[in-house]
Design brief:
By secondary structure, the chain is α+β, with helices and mostly antiparallel strands. The chain is about 40% helix and about 25% strand.
Length: about 150
């Protein structure tokens, strides 16, 4: 079997692997394999073919990593449950006294809350959830976020 045919087989395998995986990564190795097949077809030796394969694949991976990581970023996972509350707005339904606890409604749920920094937050004030501490929210009045 000629070397170029082997590289085409590698390219096809990379294309199939690309279709079976959720990320956009294997395609670049397929392109590198096609380039190596072209080098083989022109009569260049295996060292040139391998070098071309590595160079093209590496160049494509590195040049598009930043672009593709925005599309397929793993830390784009949806935040759920209490983790989704951080940054959410709420309304104080029971005053939060200085260094004490009160209640805040976030969405359709009522949570026990303390104020960030321990200050007093009167009822009716819009707050932002700073963090979740166990089963309590730590909130900051929306007008004091600056």
């Amino acid at each position: 079997m000629p070397h170029w045919a082997g590289w085409i087989i590698v390219a096809v395998i990379c294309a199939i692997a690309e279709m079976l995986t959720p990320s956009f990564f294997m395609a670049w190795f397929g392109v590198g394999a096609v380039f190596a097949a072209l080098l083989a077809a022109t009569g260049l030796g295996p060292a040139w073919q391998m070098s071309g394969f590595i160079a093209v694949s590496l160049a494509l991976v590195l040049s598009t990593k930043r672009l593709t990581s925005k599309w397929f970023k793993a830390d784009r996972e949806a935040r759920t449950n209490v983790y989704a509350l951080e940054g959410a707005s709420g309304l104080v339904t029971r005053e939060i006294p200085e260094n004490g606890t009160g209640q805040v409604r976030v969405g359709h749920e009522i949570w026990t809350a303390t104020s960030y920094g321990g200050g007093k937050v009167p009822a009716g004030v819009t707050v932002t959830v700073v963090k979740v501490d166990g089963v309590h929210l730590v909130v900051r009045a929306a007008d004091s976020l600056t």
